[in-house]
């Protein structure tokens, strides 16, 4: 596959979201992809180079999200376990208290994990639905 600069060694194609921050991964269905060393290596490099990667229109199980997270590094499960969470290592947030924890990040901008003695190296987030 080629990236926007014509580099054919990429595992998946990307396109810039802004001139300085973030890329969108196109043409990759994570639910159908093998978590190969080359895929994980590419994800890590893209996170270093671009700071975040957006994957649109994905359908991930809780287990797959945790598997991807574990492939990036050891998962640190630090928060309350909501009964509706799809996996014990996933912190579920929702506007509906029956679906997830509420009032999270209500103090303004924050970076998850910075309160830890060793802050998170990577973070995965999955939004099955968003308010419009």
Automatic annotation (TrEMBL):
Where is the secretion signal located?
none
Name a GO molecular-function annotation: dioxygenase activity
Highest taxon, organism lineage: Eukaryota
The record ties this protein, via SUPFAM superfamilies, to: Clavaminate synthase-like
Keywords on this record?
Dioxygenase, Iron, Metal-binding, Oxidoreductase
UniProt domain TauD/TfdA-like: residue ranges: 14-129
Gene3D superfamilies the UniProt entry points to: Clavaminate synthase-like (3.60.130.10)
What family, per the record?
Belongs to the TfdA dioxygenase family.
Q: Could you identify this protein by its name?
A: TauD/TfdA-like domain-containing protein
Tell me what organism the protein belongs to. Answer: Proboscia inermis
């Amino acid at each position: 596959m080629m990236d926007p600069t014509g580099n054919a060694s990429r595992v998946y194609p990307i396109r810039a979201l802004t001139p300085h921050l973030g890329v969108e991964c196109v043409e990759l269905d994570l639910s159908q992809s093998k978590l190969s060393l080359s895929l994980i290596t590419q994800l890590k490099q893209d996170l270093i180079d671009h700071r975040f990667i957006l994957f649109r229109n994905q359908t991930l199980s809780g287990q797959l999200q945790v598997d991807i997270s574990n492939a990036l590094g050891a998962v640190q499960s630090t928060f309350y376990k909501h009964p509706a969470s799809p996996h014990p290592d996933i912190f579920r947030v929702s506007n509906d208290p029956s679906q997830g924890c509420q009032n999270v990040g209500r103090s303004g901008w924050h970076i998850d994990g910075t309160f830890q003695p060793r802050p998170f190296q990577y973070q995965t987030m999955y939004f099955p639905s968003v308010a419009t």
